[in-house]
C-alpha cells in the first residue's frame, strides 16, 4: 500500500446570495461627518453635485482614453507606414524598433499626469461648491 497522505479538499464558505437590481443610494457618498450633523444633511442639491462630479470624472476619463488611443494609433501607423524609420539606426538599432519600444511609455506617463491633474481639479471644484452652501 501507499504511504502517501490522504488528499483533503479545502474550500471557503459559499458567499451569501446577492439580490440583483438593488442599487446603493446616492447618500453613500456623503462624508460621515456631514451625514451625522443632521438627519436631512444630504439633500437634492448634494445629489446633483455628486452626479455632476461623477459625470465630469467620466468625461475626463473617456477623453484621456480617447487621446491615448489616438496617440498609440498614430505611433503604430508611423512605425508601420514610414519605411525610412527602418533604414535609420541609432546605436545599431533601427529607429522604428526604438519608437515601438520606448515611445509608448512617455505617452502613458503624460496621459496619467494629465488625468490626475484634471481629476484633482474636478474634485477641488466639487469641494468648493459643497463648502459654499
Structure description:
It is a single chain. The protein is mainly alpha-helical. Helix content is 64%, strand content 3%. The chain has five helices and two strands, in the order αααββαα. The chain has helices at residues 32-37, 44-81, 84-87, 95-102, 104-132; strands at residues 89-90, 93-94. It has a two-stranded antiparallel sheet. β1 (89-90) and β2 (93-94) form a beta hairpin.
Backbone shape: flat
Gyration radius, in Å? 26 Å
Number of helices: 5
> Which strand order do you get reading across the main beta sheet?
1-2
List low-confidence stretches.
Answer: none
- The mean pLDDT is 80
The percent range for helix content is 55-70%
Would you tell me the structural class of the helices and strands? mainly alpha
* Portion in beta strands: under 5%
- Helix and strand succession? HHHEEHH
By DSSP, the count of extended strands is 2
Distance between the termini: 80 Å
Report on the biggest sheet.
2 strands, antiparallel
Amino acid at each position: 500500500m501507499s504511504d502517501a497522505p490522504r488528499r483533503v479538499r479545502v474550500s471557503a464558505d459559499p458567499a451569501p446570495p446577492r439580490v440583483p437590481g438593488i442599487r446603493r443610494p446616492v447618500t453613500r457618498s456623503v462624508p460621515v461627518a456631514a451625514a451625522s450633523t443632521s438627519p436631512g444633511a444630504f439633500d437634492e442639491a448634494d445629489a446633483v453635485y455628486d452626479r455632476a462630479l461623477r459625470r465630469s470624472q467620466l468625461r475626463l476619463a473617456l477623453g484621456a482614453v480617447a487621446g491615448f488611443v489616438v496617440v498609440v494609433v498614430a505611433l503604430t501607423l508611423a512605425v508601420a507606414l514610414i519605411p525610412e524609420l527602418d533604414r535609420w539606426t541609432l546605436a545599431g538599432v533601427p529607429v522604428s524598433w526604438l519608437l515601438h519600444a520606448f515611445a509608448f511609455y512617455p505617452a502613458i506617463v503624460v496621459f496619467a499626469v494629465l488625468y490626475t491633474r484634471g481629476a484633482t481639479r474636478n474634485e477641488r471644484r466639487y469641494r468648493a461648491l459643497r463648502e459654499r452652501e
